[in-house]
Design brief:
The structure holds 2 protein chains of 2 kinds.
Chain A lengths: L13 H6 L9 E3 L3 E2 L9 E3 L2 E2 L3 E3 L7 H4 L3 H13 L8 E14 L5 E16 L1
Antiparallel strand pairs in A: 1-5, 2-4, 3-6, 6-7
Chain B lengths: L14 H4 L3 H5 L13 H7 L17 H14 L16 E5 L3 E5 L8 E10 L7 E11 L9 E11 L7 E2 L4 E6 L4 E5 L1 H9 L4 E12 L2 E2 L5 H6 L4 E8 L12 H8 L5 H4 L4 H13 L1
Antiparallel strand pairs in B: 1-11, 2-3, 3-9, 4-8, 4-11, 5-6, 5-7, 5-9, 9-10
Classes of the chains: A alpha+beta, B alpha+beta.
């Protein structure tokens, strides 16, 4: 595809030569972030848990996204447009695709205590979109 | 409560006073010496943990026993990471625990064998939203003291739901009789059938009168069961609810559409319709599309 430079000299390091064909570094994947509610002063009304890991998605989106990330075909098309035609069209972003719920125990303003289960509080899978 | 006769005095506190330590309300600083001669009732009330004053948005702390119960419930329902446990069989995603705002204790007039007392309880349900539907409601009693050997007490509970209109009061037609096993720290009385109409109509507060008659070995309780008598004074109200709002977690089994799909022939074509394999494949594709 023209990206590989034509040189007369063989690669100095064979490992480096093969490396370029492997998955690139810093690809889109799930990252940890341990959040303590005290950091946001939410511990005044959230009794349990004291914190949790919501995760977040970060990384580069490769060209071929459908197989690994379950992205729609549109994502690949937009990627090609960004690369080949118009760089002002945003390239696909690494974002959460699936979530799981979180249970909390909270203190209400009238001193009652409530156990609640909330949807979509923890990212469990990333996609490129 | 003008309709209460017999000189009962409701214990009502304002929101500001509710933030002060309970002992300060009952005992002025110079009255400490009278603490020792007060009845067990006051001893139980002052045994509640002190409530912290409001401090820059800090919410008033709940009753310590109520908090203990809810923390135990949380450990049962959620993992250490805070994720709802998958093996949970119940269908509710919200549990609320209320302590009574006011209690009105009636003197035991015309005391019959084993008769204990009648308690009026007022619960404020402002926090219950219109999207939270009731599954179950329970009066929760906490026993401070457990009995080492197995002991059982039989209690008959009469419950009256009081309305502002005295002619509209709902009385329990069948007294609720239960056997209280004293090895357990918590005693629960299911009051769903009584409270369901009130909560369904989004009442902001409910007023109920609870009357207990307890016997052990068919005899009234003697003084050594005082701890049990006192525990019956101030129950908490537990509401098990299904929050139907978008933010709340809805298990698949809680969604009626999902359970319809599970039970439909589409999900089990070969068993229920005896279709040929090629038709099973079409049904399988149809299932995937759905």
């Amino acid at each position: 595809d023209g990206k590989v430079k034509n040189t007369s000299a063989p690669p100095y390091n064979l490992s480096q030569f093969y490396q370029q064909f492997l998955f690139p570094q810093n690809e889109c994947e799930l990252q940890n972030f341990w959040l303590k509610f005290s950091q946001l002063k939410w511990d005044r009304w959230i009794i349990a848990p004291h914190g949790y890991n919501p995760h977040y998605c970060k990384g580069e989106c490769p060209r071929v996204v459908g197989h690994r990330y379950g992205s729609p075909v549109h994502t690949m098309v937009q990627n090609i447009i960004y690369e080949k035609l118009d760089s002002s069209v945003p390239k696909p972003s690494c974002v959460p695709a699936e979530y799981s719920p979180l249970s909390i125990l909270k203190l209400e303003s009238d001193r009652s205590v409530a156990y609640k289960e909330y949807e979509n509080m923890i990212a469990t899978k990333c996609t490129c979109r | 409560n003008s309709r209460d006769e017999g000189g009962s005095q409701p214990l009502l506190v304002s929101d500001r006073e509710a933030a002060e330590p309970l002992s300060m309300l009952l005992f002025p600083p110079d009255a400490k010496s009278s603490h020792a001669v007060l009845s067990p009732l006051f001893k139980v009330l002052t045994g509640h943990s002190h409530q912290e004053e409001n401090d820059g948005g800090q919410r008033p702390q709940p009753d310590s026993r109520a908090l203990s119960y809810m923390k135990r419930l949380y450990k049962m329902y959620a993992t250490k990471e805070g994720i709802p446990k998958a093996n949970k069989s119940h269908l509710y995603n919200t549990v609320r625990l209320f302590t009574p705002r006011a209690e009105c204790k009636h003197p035991a007039e015309g005391q019959v064998k084993g008769d204990l007392h009648s308690v009026d309880l007022l619960f404020n349900l402002d926090c219950v939203t219109a999207l939270e539907h009731l599954f179950k409601s329970v009066l929760l009693y906490s026993l401070d003291k457990s009995v080492s050997k197995s002991s059982a007490i039989t209690c008959t509970c009469n419950l009256i739901v009081k309305e502002h209109d005295p002619s509209n009061q709902v009385c329990s037609s069948v007294p609720h009789t239960m056997t209280v096993e004293l090895k357990r720290r918590w005693v629960e009385i299911d009051v769903t059938s009584f409270l369901q109409p009130l909560i369904a109509s989004h009442k902001r507060s409910i007023h109920i009168a609870v009357n207990f008659t307890c016997l052990k070995d068919n005899e009234p309780l003697d003084s050594k069961w005082d701890f049990f008598n006192m525990a019956l004074v101030s129950p908490s109200l537990l509401l098990y609810l299904n929050d139907t709002s978008e933010q709340a977690y809805h298990r698949r089994d809680m969604n009626p559409i999902w359970s319809d799909l599970k039970n439909s022939p589409l999900m089990n074509p070969s068993e229920k319709t005896g279709k040929e394999p090629i038709q099973d494949e079409r049904a399988s594709r149809h299932r995937r599309d759905e």
